[in-house]
Design brief:
83% helix; mainly alpha; 199 residues; single chain; elongated
Length: 199
């Protein structure tokens, strides 16, 4: 995947970074852990401006978050609760738990969105409950931008400093991302197996 990412950035510049980070949010298997270090390395070679690289990565990530946010808004809490009542085991959540989660999200939504942007896989999924809870779009974008700017900035800076060794970031962060995904899958399986429909 490295050659394709590097070629896209080399050929399209900032637009390529926006595109790759958009796809990373819509289609998580394209990892920002590889995209942004490659962009930072390109900036280190003087082909792109570092600030422009970070802003392009942030913009692409925000654009990619919007489809999931609006999907959550379209679904809505009432429809989600009905789905939980019918298919709670496979959703691994009950309607009462959804109500509790949405109430909690209403109080801590901004912090949750900000923190979620720093966690693999969650970075994409956090947009859905934000939409379901009807978090105001400006607040959602602001919190998302803050978390995303920090994440993309750190990764791009690492690629900038490492130079030709930027691929090492993928070798370090790749396993971390895999562990997080595996833990999420295991937690889901555990919930499905132990799920009890409310009386």
């Amino acid at each position: 995947m490295f050659p394709w990412i590097s070629d896209t950035i080399a050929g399209m510049g900032y637009a390529g970074i926006v595109l790759l980070m958009f796809l990373e949010n819509v289609f998580p298997p394209i990892p920002s852990e590889l995209v942004m270090p490659a962009a930072g390395f390109t900036a280190a070679r003087g082909e792109l401006n570092f600030a422009g690289v970070v802003l392009a990565g942030t913009l692409g990530s925000l654009l990619g978050a919007l489809p999931w946010y609006y999907a959550g808004r379209f679904l809505g809490d009432a429809r989600l609760k009905r789905l939980a009542s019918r298919h709670g085991r496979w959703l691994a959540v009950s309607s009462s738990e959804i109500e509790t989660a949405l109430r909690w999200f209403g109080h801590h939504g901004g912090k949750t969105v900000f923190a979620g942007r720093l966690i693999p896989t969650v970075r994409t999924l956090i947009s859905v409950p934000a939409g379901v809870a009807r978090m105001k779009l400006p607040a959602f974008l602001l919190c998302s931008a803050a978390g995303t700017l920090l994440w993309t900035g750190l990764l791009a800076r690492a690629g900038f400093l490492l130079g030709d060794q930027y691929e090492n970031i993928g070798s370090y962060l790749g396993p971390v991302s895999t562990v997080v995904v595996v833990l999420i899958v295991l937690a889901y399986v555990y919930r499905v197996v132990t799920f009890k429909r409310p009386a």
